[in-house]
Structure formats: C-alpha cells, structure tokens
Amino acid sequence: MEGKRRLADSFLHLGLGATAVPQPPFEGGMDWYEGYGQRHGSDGREGRLVSQHSFAEDWDSWEMHPLGEEVVICTAGSMVLTQEFPDGRRETLTLEAGEYAINPAGVWHIADVEAYATAIFITAGEGTQHRPR
Q1: What does each C-alpha distance from 117 to 62, 97, 98, 111, 127 come to in angstroms?
Q2: Which is nearest to 113 in space by CA: 100, 94, 128?
C-alpha cells in the first residue's frame, strides 16, 4: 500500500486499465504540465488528471479542453465559473462548497473568486489550450 498524500501537493493520474498513479509534487507553471504530458500522453483522451487548487483571486486566463470534459468540484468557499460556448454564448454558474459543474469539451472557461475558493478538477487535458483574459 502506498502512503497517503495531499492532493494539493501531489496530483493523481487516472489512466488506462483503471490505474491511479500519484504524480511528482506540483511546483506550478507549465513545465509541470508538459512533464505530465510526457509521462502519461500515451493514455490519450481517456487519461484524467485529478488536481486541487486554491484561489484568492480571479483566473488570469481562459482554458479549454478540446478532447474531453472536465469536472470542477468546489470544496471550500465559492467561485463563479464562466463558460463560453463555440457559438459565442456565455453562461455563468456560482459554485459553493460541495457543488460541481462540468466544462464540456471545446468550451472555454474561466473562474472568478470573490474571496477564496478551493476546487478539485478532474480533467481530460490532452490538447488543452489557453488564451489571455
């Protein structure tokens, strides 16, 4: 049995064959995500990254996952999730602790935080794109 870990520090990869693979410590930045892609890219669109992030301010960029859906679970505080659909329509959802939303594949999304929020993300990250706010 592997020892326990903190999700905020050591993300988890859910891979093919129902595997669960702890990841190296998250040190922020795109370099970590590039390494993740190298470690698990062969799982393709079926691989999922489970991560936890805390926010004290609004996100500074939009994000979109073209090949799969993302589940966002708010575990503390609240956050306003804005989704921009391919037809240009925008929808906003306020997530409180214990609530979740799904970011559909191909939908740009961003989050705003009034004070503080923590969320768990289950992400089909292959091909993820970012754009400035």
Answers
A1: 17, 8, 12, 10, 26
A2: 94
Q: What is the pTM of this model?
A: 0.94
Extended strands (E) in 1-133: 12-15, 19-22, 48-55, 61-64, 70-84, 90-96, 100-103, 108-112, 117-123, 129-132
Q: What is the DSSP string of 27-63?
A: --SHHHHHHHHHHHGGGGGG-EEEEEEEESS--SEEE
How does pLDDT run across 1-16, given as a tens digit for each residue?
Answer: 568 999 999 999 999 9
* Secondary structure of residue 18 in the 3-state scheme: helix
62-114 confidence digits (pLDDT tens): 999 999 999 999 999 999 999 999 999 999 999 999 999 999 999 999 999 99
CA distance 31 to 45: 20
CA-wise closest residue to 66 among 113, 33, 104? 104
